[in-house]
Design brief:
alpha+beta, 2 domains, 48% helix, elongated, cell cycle, ScpB_csome_segregation, WH-like_DNA-bd_sf, SMC-Scp complex subunit ScpB, cytoplasm
């Protein structure tokens, strides 16, 4: 029998993206050690870990969620972690992503092919980043051959830019400047 099952249980919980249940822990440990690990040993290890992480030396705690276990930040540190998440989520979009977002906002619903025809370059990466940031969403599929995906702006886009309706987007006449005209100004 392994000398310190708790360390192995701790490693499993730490490395799991979502909560891990007792049966998953037992399966993993039984695969590593050629001995039967039982629920009692796991629960004893979980109790030791809970006590360990409840101390003031740690900013995380072991939490029982959905019949599984996961390490989470202690409540008193939620605001600090939240600030980091907000900062990361508000990182600026690249010029290509901004162009793609503007095209989608003004021409939605629109396919990726139509976006690429307007921009003149491949827009796979920009569309993917905008989907990841949840600024655009998949609206459905076009009724054209191949049934390409239609993209449109998301509710997060509306919140982020402070819009209630798409008709609040600036119109070209509102942002066109005289220096962008070609030829003489007819007065």
């Amino acid at each position: 029998m392994p000398q310190d099952i708790a360390k192995h249980v701790e490693a499993l919980i730490f490395s799991s993206v979502q909560s891990i249940n007792v049966q998953e822990i037992i399966l993993a440990l039984n695969a590593v050690f050629n001995e039967e690990i039982n629920e009692k040993q796991i629960f004893e290890s979980l109790a030791l870990l809970t006590t360990k992480y409840n101390g003031d030396d740690f900013t995380i705690e072991l939490v029982n969620l959905n019949n599984g276990y996961q390490f989470l930040t202690k409540k008193e540190f939620h605001e600090t972690v939240n600030q980091l998440q907000l900062h990361r989520s508000k990182k600026k979009l690249s010029q290509a992503a901004m162009e793609t977002l503007a095209i989608i906002a003004y021409r939605q619903p629109i396919t990726k092919l139509e976006i690429e025809q307007i921009r003149g370059v491949n827009s796979d990466y920009s569309v993917q980043r905008l989907l990841e940031k949840e600024l655009i969403s998949i609206e459905g599929k076009a009724e054209t051959p191949g049934r390409p995906i239609l993209y449109s702006t998301s509710p997060l886009f509306m919140d982020y830019f402070g819009l209630n309706h798409l008709n609040q987007l600036p119109q070209l006449k509102d942002i066109a400047r005289d220096e962008n005209t070609i030829g003489e100004n007819p007065e």
